[in-house]
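User: My instructor asked us to take a sequence, write out its structure as tokens, and then describe one feature of it. I'm not sure where to start. Here is the sequence I was given:
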Amino acid sequence: MSINEENLKLAKEVEQKDGSLGNNFYEAITEMVEETHKGYAYHQLQGDKKNGSIKMAELNGTVAAVDNIKEINKALAGAITGGDMSAWNDNEHTKDHKDLFNAFMKGDTKISKNKEGDIGVNFNGKFHTMNDIENKLGESKKDFESIKEIRQHVIDATNLGKEDRGLKEKAINNSFNEKQTRSQLKDIVKKGNIKSLLFDPVLDGAPFVEEILEMPELKNVTYKSLGLKPPKNDDDGMINETLTSSDAKKIASSLAEEGNQELAQELLTDYFTKIVAQNNKKAAGVETGDKAAKPMTPAELIKKYRNKQ
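Assistant: Let's start with the prediction itself. The structure tokens for your sequence are:
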């Protein structure tokens, strides 16, 4: 998250208050508890044990939700003060959920229930459940676990190359299994936070979102030809001209959007596999120079990545 003084100040205040959302929060919870308790008392007077039990369960759920809401608020504040927010949040198209986070921490958004009985907040005309906010926080954070696993693959591949090489100038038999490594890396990417893996530095050097601009596969390609969902700020919902460097960056950003992630997973997996293999070959004393890749047509890209089984 692009942290400014206001974000940091809000987050520190939340931590100081142990996650409390202030008067708006307690007034709303009090109203919910009183209303539910009235319903419970009414059913008890009527001898309606079934509906009385339902209201009691609802009352207990509301009380339990208080701790959950405070924990989510504390987790959000802690991610900001701890520097755990992903660089993905720096993009303009993430403004809506950053504004929601700030309003949530301020306590400006009154806690309420929707028709289904879910507790949440209304913000900019939309109801967000606590699960929604928790999920938004999860996808906004750096994926430290996946990053650690990918880095371990580099370390293991490098050590394997050194073992194969031994005291020789170069390894005679290279035991590195690139196909197996790719499969393992794809599992990590699929389980991980695709937004973080695209935008945060995983290995030494620039993050993938910057490296992807140099990938020949994405040269002279349009949103339309790839079937990619364009970013919100694209004027006509589609880039129709040959891509410039700026356009290519937008395509890289659009890979993080829902509907485009399958392609992103394949590109990320190939990218990480290539780096792991290069480190293994270098350690083994094997030639690492790659032949210049020929740019793919949109049809070839779709065939290689989007239709991959």
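For the description part of your assignment, you could build on this observation: The beta strands are 111-113, 119-123, 126-129. Try explaining in your own words what that tells you about the chain.
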